[in-house]
Task: inverse folding
């Protein structure tokens, strides 16, 4: 099970606890979200991750390589969302950010 999905499940459980509602009450998640007015954790995480972009862009990779699969780079993540022409898409930062947040939250 993906990390984003687990975060969403945990958030919904906490929201139900805040309202004193159980799963047996069969209240839709949208209704619970409307009552609690809590933002979706996946969207919040994606937006916070986006803010790290300028800081990670300049950071050089130095040091020894670790054993195992190479870590996913920021550019790999952007390429997966925006395609191979991501540098051109990055010129319109607002549009790319919205697309990134939507796709990143739908992946998990």
Result:
């Amino acid at each position: 099970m993906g990390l984003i999905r687990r975060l969403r499940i945990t958030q919904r459980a906490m929201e139900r606890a805040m309202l004193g509602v159980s799963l047996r009450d069969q209240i839709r998640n949208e209704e619970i979200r409307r009552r609690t007015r809590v933002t979706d954790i996946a969207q919040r995480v994606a937006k916070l991750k986006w803010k790290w972009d300028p800081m990670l862009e300049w950071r050089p990779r130095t040091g020894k390589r670790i054993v195992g699969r190479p870590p996913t780079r920021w550019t790999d993540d952007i390429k997966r969302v925006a395609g191979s022409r991501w540098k051109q898409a990055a010129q319109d930062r607002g549009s790319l950010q919205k697309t990134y947040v939507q796709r990143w939250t739908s992946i998990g």
